[in-house]
């Protein structure tokens, strides 16, 4: 059975690799499609992602907790998830169809049918990743997610290159998800037929009580991230929506990294929580600082080289999204603190519902004020402000639930050291130092110099978490070398 450190590394590496593919796809599509067509394609994904979140409702995530608690009943819990997801997805499709029929100006219009079919195929029988994680089979997780993403990215980019049609791209995605659903149904039937049935100890009510608050939080978070794009798309058009999407695209690297760490840490922290607060809080603080060692440099570099990155990665016409990228860079830095994980460890998922009200309320209050004046940049500012407000609210709830002060909860010393290293390393990117090189070469050389300076400063400032992370990586590499020989 793989160790916890190895699981975290494998899952994080696979999700980062998958996210790299997700980043690569839009880079290709941005060059194959016009800005307006790219915006229309992303608008479809905006609604499909929101409806998919409502259809899944975080039900598969509950397997991490319940299967970890009763491994022998894994199939019983998975069967419940499959049934509940089927009901939730059908209800989501029916409710949104009624909403589109009632609106004088339907957002999806002719794309309604493919969007609803995509949601039904995408959400159902898609619990495999969480089932395998709960059973400590990270290799299967990596193979499943990578294969699915490679197929989707290759198909969409191929159709875009061959036809240049957004409609054909969307229908190809529907066909691929329908194929995945059919294969999953066959695999599930075979697995369920050949396994001994073990009754779950937790009742339906207990499993739903655990999953539904998290589902509402995820849905609220998805709506909070999506509402700005919806408003921009309706008010300013698909081209400006494309700029908003491109400006926030690096945020996509944050979710798989943080979720991978959270998914692996949750069973361990939940076990530690039985023996008192101090053990799990210290582990959570340490993981937050270690994640910041990855996110802080990413935030600083994306802020520093925004125009160059957008021109090279996408196309020169997307450099207008540089201010948006800089606003989103602040959100990348804030993401190191996963208060939602701490709330799940405390078992207070119901209290997480308040964060949806806080973030969505702040976003909805700011969007009408900022978007008419600033366009897509106003949506980025509103998202940042609402996310910060939600994080502050969650931090207060965690501190109350753990009966500790905010100073004892937040790893302020470690984060301050990492932040100081990340900012001071900017000296290595000083423009005059690299002015003799072409723009792209100068950005690459400055980035390399920055990373070297950042690592050196981390060693100088010496946060304990950096030494711990280095020791874990060294031990893992040594174990890999010994097994290979």
The strand count comes to 0
Which shape, going by the Cα principal axes? globular
Discrete helix count = 21
* Class of secondary structure makeup: mainly alpha
What composes the largest sheet? none
The share of residues in helices is over 70%
Low-confidence stretches: none
Task: Give your account of this protein's structure.
The chain is an all-alpha fold and 485 residues long. The chain folds into two domains: 1-198, no CATH class; 203-408, no CATH class. It is 81% helix and 0% strand. The longest helix is centred in the middle third of the chain and has 33 residues, at 204-236.
Compact overview of the structure:
With 485 residues, the protein is mostly helical. It contains 21 helices and no strands.
How are the SSEs ordered, and which strands pair?
Blueprint: H1 4-32, H2 35-56, H3 62-69, H4 74-102, H5 112-123, H6 128-134, H7 138-163, H8 166-193, H9 204-236, H10 238-247, H11 254-273, H12 277-304, H13 306-313, H14 322-334, H15 339-346, H16 353-374, H17 376-402, H18 406-409, H19 412-424, H20 439-461, H21 464-484
Give the tags.
single chain; 485 residues; mainly alpha
């Amino acid at each position: 059975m793989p160790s916890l450190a190895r699981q975290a590394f494998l899952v994080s590496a696979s999700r980062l690799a998958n996210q790299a593919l997700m980043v690569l796809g839009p880079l290709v599509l941005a060059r194959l499609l016009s800005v307006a067509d790219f915006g229309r394609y992303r608008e479809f994904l905006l609604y499909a992602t929101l409806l998919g979140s409502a259809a899944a409702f975080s039900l598969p995530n509950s397997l991490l907790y319940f299967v970890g608690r009763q491994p022998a009943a894994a199939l019983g819990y998975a069967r419940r998830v499959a049934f509940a997801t089927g009901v939730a997805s059908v209800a989501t499709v029916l409710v949104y169809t009624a909403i589109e029929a009632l609106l004088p100006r339907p957002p999806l219009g002719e794309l309604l049918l493919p969007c609803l079919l995509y949601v039904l195929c995408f959400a159902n029988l898609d619990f495999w990743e969480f089932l395998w994680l709960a059973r400590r089979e990270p290799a299967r997780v990596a193979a499943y997610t990578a294969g699915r993403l490679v197929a989707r990215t290759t198909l969409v980019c191929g159709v875009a290159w061959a036809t240049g049609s957004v409609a054909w791209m969307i229908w190809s995605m529907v066909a691929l998800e329908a194929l995945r659903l059919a294969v999953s149904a066959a695999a599930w039937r075979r697995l369920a037929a050949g396994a001994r049935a073990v009754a779950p100890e937790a009742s339906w009510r207990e499993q739903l009580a655990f999953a539904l608050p998290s589902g509402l939080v995820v849905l609220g978070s998805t709506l909070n991230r999506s509402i700005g794009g919806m408003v921009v798309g309706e008010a300013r058009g698909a081209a400006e929506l494309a700029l908003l999407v491109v400006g926030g695209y690096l945020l996509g690297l944050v979710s798989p990294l943080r979720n991978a760490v959270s998914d692996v840490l949750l069973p361990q922290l939940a076990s530690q929580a039985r023996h008192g607060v101090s053990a799990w809080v210290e582990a959570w603080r340490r993981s937050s600082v270690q994640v910041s060692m990855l996110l802080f440099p990413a935030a600083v570099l994306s802020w520093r080289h925004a125009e160059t990155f957008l021109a090279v990665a996408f196309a020169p016409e997307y450099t207008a999204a540089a201010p948006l990228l800089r606003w989103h860079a602040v959100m990348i830095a804030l993401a190191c603190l996963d208060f939602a994980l701490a709330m799940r460890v405390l078992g207070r998922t119901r209290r997480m519902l308040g964060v949806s009200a806080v973030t969505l309320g702040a976003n909805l209050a700011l969007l009408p004020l900022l978007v008419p004046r600033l366009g897509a940049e106003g949506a980025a500012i509103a998202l940042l402000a609402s996310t910060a407000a939600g994080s502050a609210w969650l931090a207060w709830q965690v501190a109350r639930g753990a009966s500790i002060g905010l100073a004892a909860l937040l790893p302020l010393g470690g984060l301050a050291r990492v932040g100081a290293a990340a900012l001071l390393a900017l000296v290595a990117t000083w423009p005059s130092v690299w002015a003799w090189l072409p723009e792209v070469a100068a950005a690459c050389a400055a980035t390399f110099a920055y990373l070297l300076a950042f690592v050196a400063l981390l060693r100088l400032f010496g946060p304990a978490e950096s030494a711990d992370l280095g020791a874990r990586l060294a031990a893992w590499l040594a174990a890999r070398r010994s097994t290979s020989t």
